[in-house]
Design goal:
CATH superfamily: Tubulin/FtsZ, GTPase domain
Shape: globular
Strand content: 5-15%
Radius of gyration: 23 Å
CATH architecture: 3-Layer(aba) Sandwich
Distance between the termini: 41 Å
Number of domains: 1
Structural class: alpha/beta
Largest sheet: 5 strands, parallel
CATH topology: Rossmann fold
Number of strands: 12
Number of helices: 14
Length: 517
């Protein structure tokens, strides 16, 4: 079956994951004559999720699995004959969208419902969830009194995982059962918030690596968006956050097969790439939909029916040199004709200072995987030419996959301006929501990663020399900080020789590169 076990941890990751799984649900076809786009047996497994308070109205046991465990059953009558006062926490009310789904009533795509969905501000990711989950797929990490106080402390996250695993047998029961149920496991795909679940999740991945040492692990860590070369070392909170990112990257280099960092949406720099989007960077419901669309499409070849590509192939192409374990996620949403394509591709993995399309760079592409959705034959022909010229790559280092348009279920936020030819947004809203959208998603490995790793290494060196308080706040002693610095320099050296300062490859300097008509 070539199954993939999915693990997600943290609020941002669960927002992304909910859109991801809603898209998977939309691929189901109920007409016997319809051929499904994807092989559903590969997915539809859910892993680690967020803290209990982030689940909203989602219950571990639902309509499909309604038998409550003993711990959740009402208490039996005991020998006490006196009055009993029972205190229960009020249940969180279900969202209007969830109530409509339960009644089998989805809003019509009229203008009023379009405005309603756009203004929807879910309290939790479960407010727009369309799926039922089996009980063991949802793991609720309890809200500990000192959780917030130790947020960002890497070693504390490791301690919490070991305690949680010991008390709940996460590895021995839940994870092992998923693995044993798989006929031909591809590996693990993981998305997690580094700020809250970094130490926790990477320790989980260490245990997976110890138990299944040949397993392929693809990770999408959500980082802070801070540029390590621009950190004010006097700002302890900022320094602590950047160090957390550095420790995460070092840990993933040891535990993951390939990693694709994603920067926090609030750090995005809006520009040409977002002119056809009507989004608020602080609205996680909206921004997570953008990220999910690209993440889901970039990994779509792993699930396409009739395609034999697997996680090992994907990671092997991105890291053919065996020294470049970190790649970038970028793309265009929605995809429309016209303009400079290179200016409309946004890199969701780069820090803001590195993603400015006006900055001329000399980065070299090592590998690139392009997935287009819903493009015409002429658009496909033109974009493939752009990919080849822009990257300077050919097969097998460059691959292109073309599929049908990306689905937009009713749970998807209404964030698209109508397709228009001018650069000015329209003055009227659409009367109905689109069911699908065209897009371009890319996974690329470039020499630009070296400069980011060097920035983290330099930051660690500064902490060692200045003996900053942030080092202790991040849970690292002086020796651990020195080890971090050395490891980051070694990782940066792995990209040495790939960057060619005199090369024009990747700059898009040639006239006409990136033009799609």
């Amino acid at each position: 079956m070539r199954e993939i076990i999915y693990i997600q941890a943290g609020n941002v990751s669960n927002y992304i994951g909910t859109h991801f799984w809603n898209a998977q649900e939309s691929y189901f076809t109920y007409d016997e004559d319809s051929e499904p786009l994807v092989n559903h047996d590969i997915s539809f497994r859910e892993g680690l999720s967020s803290q209990a308070t982030k689940f909203g109205s989602l219950n571990k046991h639902n309509d499909l699995y309604s038998d409550l465990p003993v711990a959740d059953q009402p208490p039996s009558e005991g020998p006490w004959n006196g009055p009993v006062s029972e205190y229960r926490q009020a249940l969180i009310e279900k969202s209007e969208y969830q109530l409509c789904l339960e009644k089998g009533e989805e809003k019509d795509d009229d203008e009023e419902s379009t405005d309603d969905m756009k203004s929807l501000a879910p309290r939790y990711w479960s407010d727009y969830n369309r799926l039922f989950y089996i009980p063991r797929s949802v793991q609720q990490v309890p809200d500990l009194p000192d959780w917030e106080a130790n947020k960002g402390n890497w070693n504390y996250g490791k301690i919490i995982f070991n305690r949680f695993d010991s008390e709940n047998q996460l590895n021995e029961e839940c994870l092992r059962q998923f693995v044993e149920e798989s006929d031909n496991l591809q590996g693990f795909q993981t998305t997690f918030d580094n700020s809250s679940f970094g130490g926790f999740t990477t320790t989980f991945l260490e245990s997976i690596r110890d138990e299944f040492n040949k397993a392929v692990v693809l990770t999408f860590p959500v980082l802070s968006g801070l540029d390590p070369s621009k950190i004010d070392v006097e700002d302890i909170a900022q320094l602590k956050t950047a160090l957390q990112d550095a420790v995460c990257i070092r840990a993933l280099n040891e535990t993951a097969t390939q990693s694709v960092p994603i920067q926090l949406p609030v750090s995005w720099q809006l520009g040409d790439w977002s002119e056809r989007l009507d989004i608020d960077k602080a609205n996680l419901y909206q921004t997570s939909a953008v990220l999910s669309s690209h993440l889901e499409s970039a990994t779509l070849p792993l699930r396409l029916k009739g395609r034999q590509e697997d996680l090992s192939d994907l990671c092997g192409q991105l890291n053919w040199s065996q020294s470049s374990r970190f790649s970038h996620l970028s793309g265009v949403l929605p995809f429309v004709d016209g303009g400079d394509l290179s200016k409309r591709v946004f890199d969701f993995s780069a820090v803001v200072e590195s993603s400015d399309s006006d900055v001329e760079r000399s980065d070299k592409y090592l590998a690139q995987r392009n997935v287009t959705r819903g493009l015409s034959a002429s658009q496909i022909f033109n974009t493939e030419g752009v990919f080849s010229l822009k990257s300077g790559l050919e097969a097998p280092y460059l691959s292109n996959v073309h599929a049908s348009a990306h689905p937009l279920p009713s749970s998807y936020p209404h964030i698209f301006h109508p397709l228009f030819s001018s650069s000015r947004p329209p003055t009227t809203r659409p009367k109905s929501a689109p069911k699908t959208t065209a897009l371009l998603s890319q996974l690329s490995t470039t020499s630009a990663t070296a400069s980011v790793l060097q920035g983290y290494a330099s930051l660690a060196r500064t902490c060692v020399r200045r003996r900053t308080a942030a080092s202790d706040a991040a849970g690292l002693d002086a020796d651990e900080m020195r080890e971090l610095e050395e490891a980051l320099w070694t990782m940066a050296d792995g990209y040495a020789g790939f960057g060619d300062e005199e090369s024009d490859v990747g700059n898009g300097e040639e006239e006409g590169i990136g033009e799609v008509e």
